[in-house]
Amino acid sequence: MSTGATDFLSYRFSTRELPERMRIPLWRENFGRAIVHADIEPSSDVPFRAEAALHALQGLRTIALKGSAMRFKRSQANIVDGDDSIGLIVSFPGRSQLSQRGQEMELRGGNAIAILHSEPVIVTYLGGLLFGLSVPRDALTSRVAHIDDLTMRPISHRAEALRLLMTYVKVALKDGVLAAPKLRDAVVSHIHDLAALAISGHAPLGESNASAVVAARHSAAFEHIAAHFQDPELTLEVVADHQGISPRYLQRLMASSGTSFTGCVNELRLQKAFMLLIDPHYSGRRISDIALEVGFSDISHFNRLFRARFGDSPRHVRGAGKG
After folding, report:
1. In terms of C-beta density within 10 A (0-12 exposed, 13-18 middle, 19 or more buried), how is residue 297 classed?
2. pLDDT tens digits along 226-250
3. Can you give the three-state secondary structure of 30-95, one letter per residue?
4. Of 158, 184, 196, 308, which is most buried, counting CB atoms within 10 Å of its CB?
């Protein structure tokens, strides 16, 4: 799985269904040597388990790992693969230790650190979720001066560029954007820009009009709305405050995708209401209760919007679902 792959590749590996005696040998061979090009040693006495999800395409690789404590050692012998990319490692709830160029660092609580894949490195994973992102060296050297000097420096989880990067990557993977050829180049370019900003320790990004920042803030806003649309107290001002931007800037972000805050929230609420109305488990619930559950406080308003969106009343949709 190389950075130069022209197509989107997705790979998952789990020891869950393997006999215990085969877990470590297969993990070392199929994952360690064949994919990440590193030697792996378990570092605990508990029965070994590991799960990993990897994605690769031209200009980007990602990996999400969880399982038993283990050590990854990328030695001089492993570097013959010619991989000169820059890796950004993020430790979510859990802890990891890294060693490169005579420096040792500990990661925890969502903090991150950049490493060089072209030099020996040891990563000791101690638990939680470890996320890694690799981009070609050229993609960062064209954006950041003296990139080598910026590796092995802790990047706080509070850093705005890192937070935007992680949200943007999460949404891109979840929505399958990276697998869509028409969107892929733009999304990968945005990830390169955001990774460069995170590694360089850029000052707060504010309400930048840079395309990568706009795209990342747009993804972060929609992610927040999708997670909280059922809250009747959700407002444009609440979302803007959570994102650290002004309501006017958020309005511009929403408009750039051809929608509005109200339109986006209503669509999510109506789609949820439709699914609940045809769900047999909700057949005993009053329609007014369903409307309240999805976030509508005015039942008449809900009925009007529902009919305009689906061409029928909530009552008829429920009846059709029963038939």
Report:
1. exposed
2. 999 999 999 999 999 998 899 999 9
3. HHHHHHHCCEEEECCCCCCCEEEEEEEECCEEEEEEEECCEEEEECCCHHHHCCCCEEEEEEEEEE
4. 196
Cα distance between residue 49 and residue 39, in whole Å: 16
Residue 122: strand pairing partners: 73, 99
Cα–Cα distance between 170 and 187 in angstroms, integer?
12
Domains of the chain, by residue range, sit at: 9-200, 211-258, 264-322
Residue 159's Cβ-side half-sphere holds a number of Cα atoms within 13 Å equal to 25
Place of tokens 């051809």: 258
**Residues 3-48 pLDDT 10s:** 333 477 888 999 999 999 999 999 999 999 888 899 999 988 889 9
CATH class name, domain 264-322:
mainly alpha
Q: Check whether 124 has a pLDDT greater than 90.
A: yes
Q: What is the pTM of this model?
A: 0.84
- C-alpha–C-alpha distance, residues 40 and 122, integer Å: 10
How far is 79 from 81, CA to CA, in rounded Å? 5
Confirm or reject CATH 2.60.120.10 for domain 9-200, answering yes or no. yes
Crossing angle of helices 181-200 and 211-228, rounded to 10°: 100
Q: Are 190 and 216 in contact (CB under 8 A)?
A: yes
Pairing assessment for the beta strands 50-57 and 103-108 based on DSSP bridges:
unpaired
Task: Give the pLDDT score at 286.
Answer: 93
- H or E element, residue 237: helix 236-243
Mapped onto helix, strand or coil, the DSSP state of residue 126 is: strand
